[in-house]
Design goal:
TolA/TonB C-terminal domain, 24% helix
């Protein structure tokens, strides 16, 4: 049956719509299969010992006269937030006498770190900072001393990790037990290095150890030791998950 001009126009429009739907459907399907790109962390948590090496300008509090006269001493510990320029923008005291906290807070206004770089980009950092107030002598002869402390004991509530742009807290795996590699007598005192990639299960046990490189003689005992290590597993939003960490072992004299 022959088609008129109007029928031809309807057929062309119909075919065009079908082709457009096919193209759109293919594009959507392709996009949905693309892996999600990792988002840059909003901020990361860094151990106080690491940040010690990032100090650009250190300030110490002035020992208050009232504290000297009353024999007051002790530690003041803060959780601080350092911005991309290395400036402390917030300081939360988690331990310390209120008077010592007050003078310590004043000192932090001038404290500066070098910017912390993650993949060559400055990021905000959460860390801990401690001042130790101690007295020598008694009464009118008492002398006050204030020290910056970098080796703050580990606290579960401040486990290193990162806060994502979505506000999700990711806590990195943390070693809680394990033994040093047992080297054979012929390697005693010799220098060597082993680089490993360790896959940690959601239960904190090592699932696999991959050798990235290193000195052949040291690899076997190092891998055997790494497999016996136990970790606190990585937590994403409070849920344990499988993770990967890098480990480097150095043997022999340290220079």
């Amino acid at each position: 049956m022959a088609m008129g001009r109007t029928d031809w126009r309807r057929l062309v429009v119909l075919l065009t719509l079908v082709m457009m739907c096919g193209v759109l459907g293919f594009t959507q399907s392709t996009d949905s299969q693309q892996p999600s790109q990792p988002k840059r962390p909003l901020r990361i948590r860094v151990a106080s010992g690491v940040m010690r090496g990032m100090i650009d300008h250190e300030t110490l509090p002035v020992y208050p006269d009232q504290a000297l006269q009353s024999g007051m001493q002790g530690d003041v510990i803060f959780v601080i937030l350092v911005d991309e320029e290395g400036k402390i923008v917030s300081a939360n005291p988690i331990e310390g006498n209120p008077l010592l906290v007050a003078v310590s807070t004043d000192a932090l206004r001038q404290f500066r770190f070098r910017p912390y770089l993650l993949n060559s980009v400055p990021v905000q950092v959460e860390t801990q900072l401690e001042y130790k107030f101690s007295l020598h002598g008694k009464g009118s002869d008492a002398k006050g001393k204030v020290e910056y402390v970098s080796n703050i004991p580990y606290r579960p509530e401040f486990r290193p990790g990162a806060v994502t742009a979505d506000g999700v807290l990711v806590l990195w795996p943390r070693k809680i037990s394990g033994t040093e590699p047992q080297l054979p007598p012929e390697l005693t005192g010799k220098s060597g290095t082993v680089y490993l990639t360790i896959i940690i299960g959601a239960d904190g046990r090592v699932q696999d150890v991959k050798v990235v490189g290193g000195d052949e003689a040291f690899i076997a005992p190092t891998v055997a030791s790494a497999k016996q290590t136990l970790y606190e597993p990585e937590l994403i939003g409070g849920k344990p998950t499988v993770s990967t960490t890098e480990a480097t072992y150095h043997f022999g004299p340290q220079h």
